[in-house]
Amino acid sequence: MEESWWVASLKALETKAQRMGALTKMNTAIAKEAALPRQIIAGLLTNPELYDCARLSGDSGKDPSVDVALELLGHCLDQLAVDTADEQLPRLLGRGLAHSNPALRSLVLASVLKELRRQLNAGQVHTLPGNELLFLILDELKQPETEGSSLAINILSIVLVQRLSDAGVQAKLVELLQKDEIVRCRAYELGVVLAKGSAASLTAVEFILDAALSELDNDDVLLQASVMEILVPLAEQNHGLSYMERRRVFDVISTRVQRIEENPLDALLIPSIMKFFGKIAAVQPQKIIAGYPHMLACLFQQLQSEDETILPTAMDTLSNLASTPQGKVLLHLHFNTAVEESFKKYSSYTKKLSAPIKERLLNSLDVIYSVETPPTKEINAILKTWYESFAGGAQANAIMELINTPFPDLQLAALGLLKTICKYGWGIVALKNTGGAVEFLLSRQKDLHKDVKFLKWEIMEMLAISSEFSPTETVRFTAYVNEGPYHIQADVNIATEPQGNA
């Protein structure tokens, strides 16, 4: 189509009665074009009437032209050579980024993010010519919708570092900190992402991190919990951990637990505090396990509580603490009796808690026993002792009882843990010692979920190469494995001839 046709079609949008027809024609035309000239794309992306078509009305019924306009603008963005170094880009994207329709803003943000990720993969992020595009994207953090803000944070985490020391950028960030708690939390999340990048970036956004820490004195328990969750990734880098130590973050938060009787409302925060320390321990086990014994004591108390409202978080926290080799060794060194008592309690929980909590328990154990590299003899021995505290010895009855339940998700979680346990020699011995376990794995029950059948088959693969079984058993296991996970045994009918009269 000639440029004049596009100009005429855009002109038609000024008349509401002609909008749907004009939008449909332009959509059809652009879909057939591999690459329209840039001036046509620019004309479309800067046309105010086209953006008016994409505007949501206050009426309950949605104007069908909105979706068609969004589709057309999506085609334009696909054909636009988005280059963040282009001085014209803010002019081309500005109407979309400032639009009232969140779906359109997300469309534009996704286009920018796609280009930035391409630049990252190519090894060079282009230098921004100014602040205009940044300011438009920072404004997204003030919007009520979450989809666009998530895209904006991802974009800013890549490009904002270029201009962090710019006075205009700093003023814009300060402005975010003066908004409501949702916007402030987005600013804190952005600050943490940027601070992780380097010590220099952390210094540039330290005022954001300090503002986040000040929220921990807020009376709003949910806000405090959100801020703790946001701060966790900061400890993944040494410079972030150093900042948290300088600001005595761990001491301040742990003191809340020690002085719980002085402020009973803080009891509502304990699950969030446990989650915070557990996630920090997953990356800095020495700091937490050796440095805050009263936090661990509080955790083990929670694990004995039988309270289904706090047990899921407590179980996840223990699995975080024990997720690394160093974490396992430190727990064994400083809190082995408490860990063993917790595992014994887990055994009783498998018999009396609700199915979703049992599933959470099994998943948390799976995290503890999953290892990326073969365990050392020391860790192997630690895990064996902990397992036998849970199982009541070298057997797997507790797990098998959960496999034989009518809840598919619980079955899968139990089989998943059994598979993980069988990566250890002592785990295979425990399974072998359990009456009916091998027979169940070898059975070909037709009514089992396909994922259950596959997990059974994966476990049999392990047993088939184990030296714990006799040659005869190994032959049976190998035959099962060779038949595949979904093999159906043929029914054998023995027919007999009727006896005739002699």
TrEMBL record:
- Transmembrane spans: none
* Claim: tRNA-binding is one of the keywords in the record: no
Pfam families assigned: Proteasom_PSMB
Q: Can you name the source organism?
A: Drosophila rhopaloa
| Gene Ontology BP term (one) | proteasome assembly
InterPro entries referenced in this protein's UniProt entry, alphabetically:
ARM-like, ARM-type_fold, PSMD5
Protein name per Swiss-Prot or TrEMBL: 26S proteasome non-ATPase regulatory subunit 5
Family statement: Belongs to the proteasome subunit S5B/HSM3 family.
Q: Report keywords, A-Z.
A: Proteasome
Cellular component GO terms, alphabetical: cytosol; proteasome complex
Lineage, top-rank taxon, reads Eukaryota
Gene name, please? LOC108045267
